Amino acid sequence: MTVTTDQTVALKYAQDFVDFVNESPTPYHAVDSVKKMLVNEGFEEIVERNNWSKSYKLAKNGKYFVTRNGSSIIAFTVGGKYENGNGIAIVGAHTDSPCLRIKPISKRTSEGFITIGVEQYGGLIAHTWFDRDLSVAGRVYVNEEGQFVPKLLKIDKPLLRIPTLAIHLNREVNTKFEFNKETKLVPIAGQTALDKNENENGKKTAATEGGNKHSCSDDPNLQMTQEQFESVRNVISRHNKSLIELIAKELNVEPSQIEDFELLLFDHQKSVIGGLNDEFIFSPRLDNLTSCFAATQGLIESVDQLPNEKGIQMISLFDHEEIGSRSSHGADSSFLPDIIQRLAKINFNNVKEKESGSGSVDFFHEIVSKSFLLSSDMAHGIHPNYGEAYESQHRPQVNMGPVIKINANQRYATNSPGIVLIKKVADRAKVPLQLFVVRNDSPCGSTIGPLLSSKLGIRTLDLGNPQLSMHSIRETGGTYDVIKLMDLFKSYFENYVDLDSKILCDHL
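Structure tokens predicted for aspartyl aminopeptidase:
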């Protein structure tokens, strides 16, 4: 195979994306990875709890980002020719993926094994988590001399595995693989006989036998053992001590400093480029780190045109999409409206308030009516072994470009003015586009698009790169689709204001 210059560039971006995924096993790590990309390009971090007019000097040609909960991030650039009330070109995506999360009280043993209690997060294909090398990552709160500091944890070692039952003991496993998600989807972490902490703590104490009980009230029936009494206060008593010690060692702290954590399991096998011609990406979390990476890279590469831009260019990457977006920092929160409202009150024109209308006059509604949201989430590429599951005329191919997602029942927010816009954006970047609708006899997923569209009244289009095995622990995407989506976003940021003025809807 002869590799052209274009292919070399595409493979370079694909490898950058693979590295991004490998550094981002959780939403906290994904946001941290995005922050590093932005900081390297001179973006300034701003903080929600600060007074922006006093603490920062937001100005034209500026590059900024703000986070919420460490797992959602909004970044934006202000055009050199921006005027108060002009619109915003937004790309929205999500940082989370379906996974297993460690329960608040995870300490368990069974048949001589140390096991870890986990909770299902989102709509994962659960059977794909069996017989995989799993590890642990997330956010850990550490006590540093009275300051409770969040630290990112990613243990680069296979720690856990959810073993299947041998076929000799389950002859129907190849025709019917059914299991209870509470009792069978439980990872093993070690053996009690070989664990020094289990040996030390395995003996029954007076507390576990019922002695030394603490009364919750005067009612003699409401009593706790010592272990139960300390279960919320003491993180070590809630989890396997060897796991806590491993976390502490990884973070270079004492176990007693660990106050609490939010940890999830991830596939320890790395994301890689594969296929006979390097055409595939075999990876966890393609849904939706692909959109996060492409949006960030597209925003960064559009900066060269910033002095001539008349609008604001923005990416908005949210946590909790996989579970409905209803949280303080999900797409259904106040995060994006809050940031737009604060930008609406900044006097970017540097003229007196009476002349500009800035300060006392809020440009929020004018800005929203002139803005547009590209809701970017992964799409279903045609599966060679299950072609019957797809609508006959809408069968997107991996490596053939981003997919416009359409649904008459508004599970996607796409409509014709949005399609006209994205077609013109794609034409300028020479990016091919595809179309997708689900079969009438098939359910349709949804995205942050309809949610933000109804919440803000902002015009929206849903699209995303095609992939196979969505919500599996290992998904398959196209190597050459990464650069296509990035180029589409770059063109969108650079051309939105000009194209929007030519696509009439409610305005003349």
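The chain has two domains: 5-97+284-500, 99-210+223-267.
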